[in-house]
Amino acid sequence: MKRFSRITGTGSYLPAARLSNADLVARLASEGIETSDEWIVERTGIRARHFAAAGVTSSDLGAEAARRALEAAKITPKDIDLIIVATSTPDMVFPSTACILQNKLGANGCPAFDVQAVCSGFVYALSVADAMIKSGGATTALVIGAEVFSRILDFKDRTTCVLFGDGAGAVVLQASDTPGLLASDLHADGSHVDILCTPGHVSGGSVLGDPLLKMDGQAVFKLAVGVLEQAARTVLAKAELKDTDIDWLIPHQANIRIMQSTAKKLRLPMDKVIVTVDQHGNTSAASIPLALDHGVRAGKVKPGDLVMLEGVGGGFTWGAVLLNF
Ligand code: ACO
Asked: Buried-most residue among 141, 142, 229, 319 (CB within 10 A)?
């Protein structure tokens, strides 16, 4: 019998501290940086974001999201035989955030590793888990996106620090006789490393280079709108489906204008797009599973719905996953 993979549970977690645009404007003003709620809302659609308390790590947020996904799937940590964590803000240089999180869950023994593809990390990780399940290498995978981007923000750079937030989302992906994940399409173009990066690294006991996020927003914007349509068309063609068959588009939550442009190209009204960027900001690899979980718990995304997930981010990386929920 053919083996497929299917999402059987979702979960998410946001740190308690919520900063509205007004809160952030006040915080930046105290450091002489000028911005406004109007500018942020008009250019990005963002109204609020969550920031983790000092000492809280990606594995803390990811473990909480994972517990909620396990509960939704009605399984225990002992049932998991694969953990993949997508993150660009790992707890340590090594070991992986996945190993640290595995220990927090008490799921010790199964393979656990991180995927680093910035804001495309979750679609990359989900595609890898799907391939491992289809090949018989795993049966019950936990796929997590977890980030504390607040740690790498330059609060003197208003062009980036207003955009990002912290959070985590998780799914349980299990072997199934019926198709869940239908098709995926992943890409990277390393010639664009410089347009979105955090160049600092540890060398000889010191941090070399700038450890804070740098972005050429306009260059990212232009690339993003083109590749997101391309990736969506590719997975639809692989699954022999058309854009109007999509029940829910869940794109990476970076900017409402990119999401509106993608929806328009795919002939989807905005009420078929799950939008959380307004409340979460850009949570990088966590944004898609966070939005998926919010869509599920709001009663929007239902079993059997055709869902398009789309990621795009630093690398430059991008990709799409089409699935029957
Ligand atoms: N508050 C007030 N003014 C600001 C702010 C701010 N926070 N930031 C910039 N400005 C000013 C600029 O200085 C500029 O002023 P000037 O015209 O006097 O020089 C003006 O606003 C316009 O700046 P632009 O950079 O042209 O603004 P733009 O409309 O391009 O919006 C933005 C910027 C929101 C970053 C947009 O380019 C964008 O969303 N890009 C894509 C980001 C993205 O999708 N990232 C996804 C991947 S993230 C990842 O992988 C980690």
From this structure: 142
Q: Is 68 in the pocket of ligand 1 (CB under 6 A)?
A: no
Which of 159, 213, 218, 257, when mutated, tests ligand 1's pocket best, judged by the most ligand atoms within 8 Å of its CB? Answer: 159
Indicate if 119 belongs to the active site: yes
The model's pLDDT over 81-107, given as tens digits with 9 standing for 90+, comes to: 999 999 999 999 999 999 999 999 999
Which two structure tokens, joined as six digits, stand for 183? Answer: 């098709």
50 is catalytic: no
Q: Specify the pTM.
A: 0.97
